[in-house]
Amino acid sequence: MSYSRKAGATPGRTLDDAAQERGTPMTLSSEHLSTLNPSQRAAAEYGTAALPHQLPGPLLIIAGAGTGKTTTLAHRVAHLVARGADPRRILLLTFTRRAAETMTRRAHQIAAQVATGDVSGRGRIEWSGTFHAIGNRLLRMHAEAVGLDPGFTVLDRSDAEDLLNLVRHELGFSKQATRFPKKGTCLAIYSHALNAGAAVETTVEGAFPWCASWAEELKGLFRAYVDAKQRRHVLDYDDLLLYWFHLMQDGAVAESVRRRFDGSTTSWSMNTRTRTHSRRGSCGA
Ligand SMILES: Nc1ncnc2c1ncn2[C@@H]1O[C@H](COP(=O)(O)OP(=O)(O)OP(=O)(O)O)[C@@H](O)[C@H]1O
Ligand SMILES: [Mg+2]
């Protein structure tokens, strides 16, 4: 989790200016953190003492499942707002929609409890959501920079499987004598290879060994699937992250996105029991 930035959002506009516009000082009481245990409280308060004039530096919290990560992050976000951070300039990212909603709701509730007089009505956290939702939003704002039509359509998993299936039929793979992998398996292989940055051969050998004999055909299928998506101006869920990554390689766009935020709070989990990282699992950071 990090919350870092050096100076004001807009050139010539300092943090002090921004704080003044929003009204400072904020409540200095930390009563709203009293339900947290000492470690949680230290995490929630880290680097916030000099707010709103100086933003906290980066902070990484590693904690196990059910230890109160979401609770802590919600309190931290609320505490940042209570101490003068602009909620409209906080980026809150999580992997699941439910986690995003929970964290934002809790942060708003706590911030509302704290809010008295000058801190009330300071606005809501506008940039809170899953990586995919935030990627979608940023991509629509900067679509041209990555050669996208800003009106692109997002395919959910089921739509993506159907498009892949259509391409699979067009290439004649569904009529093979030996059974070609089903549409769901094809999409899982495609997604796995893309997210791991691995070749199709390596992916099927490692994770889908029963499909190893189809590696060449799968490569052809995935090429045709990418063409089909581009012709239709559609992105699947993996594309939202992939195009976002490419968007951030454009220096001017990356700078404009960076200036939009004073800091980001990210909550995600990874499975530490297996060698391969997963997005959900027993241990979170
Ligand atoms: N300091 C605390 N005192 C009492 N209860 C707490 C405290 N911190 C967290 N809890 C409770 O523990 C439960 C788990 O908390 P939370 O959902 O924040 O954990 P988490 O680490 O995000 O869990 P997960 O790994 O499932 O995402 C919740 O019911 C929460 O209210
Ligand atoms: Mg949680």
Bound ligand species:
adenosine-5'-triphosphate, magnesium ion
How many DSSP-defined strands?
A: 8
Class of secondary structure makeup: mainly alpha
Proportion of helical residues: 40-55%
Output the CATH homologous superfamily of the largest domain: P-loop containing nucleotide triphosphate hydrolases
Radius of gyration: 22 Å
Strand/helix succession: HHEHEHEHEHHHHEHHEEE
Strand portion: 5-15%
Reported for the largest beta sheet, the result is: 3 strands, antiparallel
Approximate shape: elongated
Q: What would the keywords be for this entry?
A:
single chain; 285 residues; mainly alpha; Rossmann fold; 2 domains; three-stranded antiparallel sheet; three-stranded parallel sheet; 11 helices; 47% helix; elongated; disordered N terminus; binds adenosine-5'-triphosphate; binds magnesium ion
Describe this structure in words.
The chain has helices spanning 15-22, 38-45, 69-82, 97-114, 131-141, 157-170, 183-196, 200-207, 215-232, 237-247, 251-260, and strands at 63-64, 90-94, 127-130, 153-154, 234-235, 263-267, 269-270, 283-284. The protein is mostly helical and 285 residues long. The protein folds into two domains: 15-144 and 250-266, Rossmann fold (3-Layer(aba) Sandwich); 153-232. β2 (90-94), α4 and β3 (127-130) form a beta-alpha-beta unit. α3 packs across α4 (97-114) and α7 (183-196) packs across α8. The longest helix is centred in the middle third of the chain and has 18 residues, at 97-114. The radius of gyration is 22 Å and the shape is elongated. The N and C termini lie close together (8 Å). Mean pLDDT is 82; it is low at 1-19, 22-27 and 274-285. It binds adenosine-5'-triphosphate (ATP) and magnesium ion. Residues 35-37, 40, 65-71, 284 line the site of adenosine-5'-triphosphate.
